[in-house]
Amino acid sequence: MKIAVIMPVFNEADVIEKVIKRVPKKLPNDGWVKVFVVDDGSDDNSSQIARRAGATVLRHPINLGVGAATITGIRAALMLGADVLVTIDSDGQHDPLEIKKLVSPIVKDGYDFVIGSRFKVNGQKKAPWHRLLGNYIMNIITFCFYGVWASDTQSGFKAFSRKAAQSMQLSFFGYEICSEMIGEIKKRKLRYREVPIKIIYSDYSLRKGQSPLNAINILLRMISRIILGGHK
Amino acid sequence: MAIVLKIIATLLGSVALAKTVLAYKAKEDSFTVSLVWAIVWVGIIFIAWRPATIDQIADIFDGRSTTIGQIAGIGFVLLVFVLYRMYLKAHRQEQKIIALTRHIALQGLAKKNKRQK
Fold first, then answer.
1. What is the pTM of this model?
2. What is the mean pLDDT of residues A175-183?
3. Angle between the B65-116 and A66-79 helix axes, to the nearest 10 degrees?
4. Is A75's CB within 8 Å of B102's CB?
5. Interface predicted TM-score (ipTM) of this complex, two decimals
6. Do A64 and B101 count as a contact with CB atoms less than 8 A apart?
7. CA contacts within 13 A on the Cβ side of B61
8. How far apart are CA B33 and CA B61, in angstroms?
């Protein structure tokens, strides 16, 4: 079983090494676990640090957005024959040791898509109220657009099978890719489930994360796609 | 009906104002550009609630308020059309840039993968 852990990165020199080193080197399988860092035009030395930490680094010469970086990571993982793909935030908000929790339903129970939910059980208490509200609004928006309800549509911690990765047609280059992936679950009839994950909110990750106001940008891009069409 | 249009104009103007603020915070636009657009959006919201303002301004110049309204209407339609064309061009350029950037990022990996096979 070949597992690709995809980390879109933008100026994460302070934390990226720690995050990469926490990725399990081996999961219960005979294959490999590879970390793919997609440096999305960072101004700092995130690429060099990631490479030294043992990641396969792909570098966008200019900043395109987390969605574009995620798609590049998916293409790279598929190129190298990954069976399971995991996306994870590179700011330390997620615990890489929980990758097993997301991979297990795919390997053992045949699910196509697993969402790591920050808002099931334990995660709820630690999130700041404006983050909870922003995420809930995005859940509603995602449901209105795509007809799929999930407790954490904006979670960057997800896992999906090779079959799911090959079938999804992703094209958003910003944070709206999170909602787009949820939409693809329904469109491609993928079996999905949510598993609870920890949130690790530090001053650093709170500073780096999305502003709740960004929901306006996401909504406008999604509406523009419907009215003016998109290119896949 | 009039109140609905006023509310829609206020909502759209407010969203545009929020985007202007976000763009300034993200350093995508300078202070001057952001200020100009903020004044435009606030102005649009103001005129939505006080449309007579346009006629009052026209009266100051030469009193032909009806002509000003017609010109404004035609100008608005042209503006929407130009904006739509600009959006399409920008969108296509964006897609090309993304494809090219991804190609550059994956090139090294593809070559390495070929050599290993």
1. 0.77
2. 93
3. 30
4. yes
5. 0.73
6. yes
7. 10
8. 28
- The confidence score (pLDDT) of residue A83 equals 95
Closest CA to A18 of A91, A115, A72: A91
Q: Given A72, A217, A220, which is nearest B106 (Cβ)?
A: A72
Q: Which long-range contacts (CB under 8 A, 24 or more apart) does B105-112 make?
A: B105/A38, B105/A58, B105/A59, B105/A60, B105/A61, B105/A72, B105/A76, B106/A58, B106/A72, B106/A75, B106/A76, B106/A79, B108/A58, B109/A56, B109/A58, B109/A76, B109/A79, B109/A80, B110/A79
Tokens of B62: 């030469």
Asked if residues A45 and A126 have their Cβ atoms less than 8 Å apart, the reply is no
Chain A residues at the B interface, defined by Cβ less than 8 Å, are: 38, 56, 58-62, 64, 68, 71-72, 75-76, 79-80, 173, 211, 213-214, 216-217, 220, 224, 228, 231
Question: Which of B22, B104, B109 lies at the smallest CB-CB distance from A217?
Answer: B22
Tokens 């070559």 locate to B111
Mutation for A interface: B85, B101, B111, B115, most A CBs within 10 A: B101
Mean pLDDT across A82-96: 94
- Sign, Cα dihedral of A53, A59, A63, A64: negative
